[in-house]
Design goal:
25% strand, four-stranded mixed sheet, 4 strands, single chain
Amino acid sequence: MNKKLKIIKIAVLASEPLGWGSGKHYFPMILNGYSWESNNKKYTFVTEFIYDKDIIKGRLSVSNYDILLAPGGGVGDSEAISKGFTFSFKVKSWKKHIQKFIKDGGS
């Protein structure tokens, strides 16, 4: 019996100010390649780092990723940290791309 394979693509937000430790490097170590089977289907996680500049350029899309994982403890460079400051074009763009990802079905 052939099992169907479902790859779950996870974008790990990797931008952070110098010296801030989010532990982002642990997430791919833990999640990448993790798999399980259910109802004749195999699910496998595949992780990739994504940076704020990539999000601004439109790389965060449901055609590229299923999930955006934002580790806690300092992830996010100037776009993420200043997310409350909506007067910045970069911040607006960063937020809009994440909103679109969610609206399009991303998690």
